[in-house]
Design brief:
alpha/beta, single chain, five-stranded parallel sheet, about 15% strand
Length: about 525
């Protein structure tokens, strides 16, 4: 407020920018604390990194900024989408940073069924463009599943209808995954249930279903909205297990119906699609069994007739054996005569051989054998004589070699002495060379040792100090006061008593003159 003493031309109050903005904000929020605005969403790009959502609501003539805080955004039943006509409930406020007014939305809903249908159609075109509704990717349903998974509410009439229908047609094991089929969390729960059934192991404690049924009773478009959720559609399309959608009545269509492998008009119809009728299967099996028995009987009858026909074409046993029997009889009749002829021929040959054996022939054969023995003995004598001559010649050659043996030994001995003498000369020469080389190397090393030895340094006035244990002392800190140390000079080594560095070094006292008749050798004084 301004004072009356000021020189202002008017008496109007002055405000700061912040005060004016705050006043406008309070005025606007008091006047529009709870409003419902109908408009089209514009400029929506999804939630900000902070979790808040910023966009605009517009119609054909005006535009207003809108914001949804993070906590409200997570609870929305219908999320904002670009171009969607909605009814937003909230309050009008101002943003002092840019002098704008905006609506803070607390609830958001589509503007009528037409908007929802437009949203569904837009979402359907988007997912269809990704190929999620293609017929080529859909799977065939198993003819006789052993385990069926049902995704529905556990308390409604739908699950009872499905269980009763399966029990009547073909009882199998049913696993129910309880979900909410209506409300804000319906879509997330249904998608998690479908993914959960697919995550089961075929050999786990709970067996993986062979078929999934997603079911719900009839309702309005808003009631069935969770089954139009994009997450539900993607989960149904990605399911490795064949899936039947049974949402609503026959006239109700949702996006999961397009992505599922099969759509049932009602939940009861889904149960009928899932399993066959057991009684029909039994009747069909009985019919097939009767047909099988009839076919087997007809086959056996045809085979029996074929065997009988083949048997009639075969010859009888008498006809087959008649000719061999006749040959056997003829052979038996000629057998006796053949034996008599064979015996006569053998006797005749024996008599001919016996006629050839006479004493004269035996003596002549014996004489020939004796002559052969004498010839062999004569040949053996000649061979023995040749062997003896050969041995005698070898002995004579050996005797000559033995006679010349001493001379050859002397020659070999002289050659060995000459070789040993030569080797001795060569050894002496090599040893001399080796000794010269070692002497030269030793001299070089001795010179190197002298140049590196500390004793050469002692000649220049340095000394080596050692402790009582003969260990080298290179620092004054290593010497304790009152201990004996050894000091090595170039010409010898002396002992000394160590004292502290702050004590002065006194000059050595002159030795007293020796008394007459007594002489004392001067002693070594202290270096310190």
């Amino acid at each position: 407020m301004v004072s009356l003493m000021d020189d202002s031309p008017t008496n109007a109050a002055e405000f700061t920018v912040s005060e004016l903005s705050g006043s406008i904000r309070r005025t606007v929020e008091d006047a529009f604390g709870n409003v419902r605005v109908r408009g089209e969403i514009s400029g929506y790009r999804g939630p900000h990194s902070s979790g808040h959502a910023y966009f605009s609501l517009k119609d054909d003539r005006a535009r207003i900024e809108a914001v949804i805080w993070k906590g409200v955004f997570s609870r929305l039943k219908h999320r904002p989408e670009e171009g969607l006509e909605v009814i937003a409930s909230g309050k009008i406020t101002t943003y002092a940073g840019s002098s704008k007014y905006q609506i803070v939305i607390e609830a958001l809903e589509p503007a009528g069924a037409g908007a929802l249908m437009a949203l569904i159609e837009e979402r359907r075109r988007k997912l269809a463009a990704e190929g999620l509704f293609d017929e080529g990717r859909k799977q065939l349903l198993p003819y006789m599943p052993m385990v069926i998974g049902v995704v529905t509410s556990p308390t409604g009439a739908v699950i009872r209808d499905i269980l009763h229908r399966i029990e009547d047609r073909f009882p199998v094991h049913v696993i129910v995954w309880p979900v909410r089929v209506q409300g804000d969390t319906s879509g997330d729960e249904v998608s998690r249930a479908i993914n959960g059934f697919n995550a089961f192991s075929p050999n786990g404690r709970i067996r993986r279903p062979d078929l999934i049924i997603v079911a719900r009773g009839g309702g309005s478009l808003e009631d069935l909205w969770g089954f139009n959720d994009e997450a539900v559609v993607r989960a149904a399309a990605a399911s490795d297990i064949p899936l039947i959608s049974a949402v609503g009545h026959e006239t109700d269509w949702t996006l999961i119906d397009h992505a599922s492998d099969r759509r049932a008009p009602t939940p009861t119809g889904a149960a009928e699609m899932a399993v066959p009728v057991k009684a029909d299967l039994e009747a069909h099996l009985a019919t097939l069994a009767a047909r099988l028995r009839s076919a087997q009987t007809r086959t056996l009858d045809r085979r029996r007739e074929t065997v009988r026909g083949l048997a009639r074409a075969l010859p009888t046993l008498d006809s087959v054996l008649a000719l061999p029997r006749q040959r056997l009889d003829r052979s038996a009749q000629s057998l006796g005569r053949a034996l008599e002829l064979n015996t006569a021929n053998r006797r005749r040959r024996f008599e001919q051989q016996a006629a050839r054996i006479t004493p004269v022939a035996l003596v002549s054969a014996l004489r020939e054998k004796r002559q052969q023995v004498r010839d062999k003995i004569a040949r053996m004598d000649r061979v023995q004589e040749r062997r003896i001559d050969a041995l005698r010649a070898r002995l004579e050659r050996h005797a000559q070699s033995v006679a010349t043996l001493p001379r050859r030994i002397r020659e070999a001995h002289s050659r060995g002495l000459e070789r040993l003498t030569d080797l001795g000369r060569r050894r002496d020469s090599a040893m001399s060379l080796m000794l010269d080389q070692h002497k030269r190397g030793l001299g070089a090393q001795s010179r190197m040792l002298q140049s590196l030895s500390y004793q050469s340094v002692l000649g220049r006035g340095f000394a080596v100090v050692r402790g009582q244990d003969r260990a080298l002392l290179s620092r004054a800190a290593q010497v304790e006061t009152g201990t004996m140390i050894a000091v090595e000079f170039a010409d010898g080594e002396v002992s000394a008593l160590a004292s502290s560095s702050d004590q002065p070094i006194s000059a050595p006292k002159k030795p007293a003159r020796a008394k007459a008749g007594k002489s004392k050798e001067p002693g070594q004084g202290s270096l310190f």
